[in-house]
Amino acid sequence: MPMSYSLLLAEDPAPGQQPGGLVGSPMFPFFLVALMLLFWVVVILPMSRRQKKEQEQLLATLKRGAKVLTSAGIVGVVVSAKDGEDEIVIRSEDAKLRIKRNVVVQVLGTDAAETAKQ
């Protein structure tokens, strides 16, 4: 009489063998932590380093006339940006804003009218 697969799955494990395999093992939490650590080292850490380097390069190249987007969603043109200073001044419509360099998210290009005033 042939045995069905469902009957094989429903049987008790062999004597001396623990049920559950790896998941039932007391080492399973350590395995999960090690797997998450490996993922962090291989994927997340290099990605965050690359993003930080790109942001630093972006902030180092800010100069007068550059059209920028801030993290708050404000689009403006850089009026003054001195090397070594943490703050820049941007003009958005009729307002001038003094902002920190690190809130600049993206450089959208240059404003021809602002560069002509130089």
TrEMBL record:
<dbReference type="InterPro" id="IPR003849">
    <property type="entry name" value="Preprotein_translocase_YajC"/>
</dbReference>
<feature type="transmembrane region" description="Helical">
    <location>
        <begin position="27"/>
        <end position="45"/>
    </location>
</feature>
<dbReference type="GO" id="GO:0005886">
    <property type="term" value="C:plasma membrane"/>
</dbReference>
<keyword id="KW-0653">Protein transport</keyword>
<keyword id="KW-1003">Cell membrane</keyword>
<protein>
    <recommendedName>
        <fullName>Sec translocon accessory complex subunit YajC</fullName>
    </recommendedName>
</protein>
<comment type="similarity">
    <text>Belongs to the YajC family.</text>
</comment>
<dbReference type="Pfam" id="PF02699">
    <property type="entry name" value="YajC"/>
</dbReference>
<keyword id="KW-0472">Membrane</keyword>
<keyword id="KW-1133">Transmembrane helix</keyword>
<keyword id="KW-0813">Transport</keyword>
<keyword id="KW-0811">Translocation</keyword>
<keyword id="KW-0812">Transmembrane</keyword>
<dbReference type="GO" id="GO:0015031">
    <property type="term" value="P:protein transport"/>
</dbReference>
